[in-house]
């Protein structure tokens, strides 16, 4: 399923133009320092007919791999078909999930979050590409500095830094290797780390919030991190982390 989603995202991303971000540099830097997402909804280069197609195809893939119930799939597809019903939902959902303080829209089909995360990804990734060049990161970011979503993977770089990887737009940014991004715990005695048998991957589990994050160890590695491939390759580590009481 992950590979089918990536294949589709790659196709879409290839035709999404680099966005023109109208925000001033000073405004962007203020947002960055305050830990607020740099991408505003209006900056996302959403071409709605293209987005509807991506949205529909994402829902189909999730249904095919039984990650979406048939009834929810039908409701989600109907949302995309009904005139302009989709646009305000997507805007409100993005605002609510990028730390603006807007509340999530209510009464939406179950599974919609899942579809929106994947369908919006190729569009958000293009925004992150532009903003990464424009706005230096000056403070620690426990969530994605570009879209405000949580990290869902990480990479340990050859010079032993840790970069977090956004679970939505796939942007990478540096973050302290021994601090939990989910609760800010930085007590080394309460961060447990273990590696896969081949040493290629590491898991850090936090004994305060009990969440964990996997990382690809790129020191002595022959290739860079490939978040999707590495996420799948590390499913046994998820099982191990859960066995140890993390979630
Ligand atoms: Zn992001
Ligand atoms: Zn924590």
Q: In what order do the strands lie side by side in the largest sheet?
A: 3-2-1-6-5-4
Bound molecules: zinc ion
The overall average pLDDT, rounded, is 94
β-sheet strand percentage? 5-15%
Describe this structure in words.
There is one protein chain. With 247 residues, the chain is an alpha+beta fold. It is 42% helix and 13% strand. It contains 8 helices and 6 strands. Strands 3-2-1-6-5-4 form a 6-stranded mixed sheet, with helices on one face. Helix 1 runs antiparallel to helix 3 (48-64) and helix 3 packs across helix 6 (112-134). The radius of gyration is 18 Å and the shape is globular. It starts with a helix and ends with a helix. The structure holds zinc ion (2 copies). Residues 180, 182-183, 185, 206, 208-209, 211 line the site of one zinc ion (ZN).
List keywords for this structure.
single chain, 247 residues, alpha+beta, six-stranded mixed sheet, binds zinc ion
Summarize the topology.
Blueprint: H1 2-15, H2 25-33, H3 48-64, H4 70-81, H5 86-97, H6 112-134, E1 151-156, E2 162-166, E3 172-175, E4 191-195, E5 201-206, E6 212-217, H7 227-233, H8 235-243
Parallel strand pairs: 1-6
Antiparallel strand pairs: 1-2, 2-3, 4-5, 5-6
Helix pairs in contact: 1-3, 1-6, 3-4, 3-6
The structure holds zinc ion (2 copies).
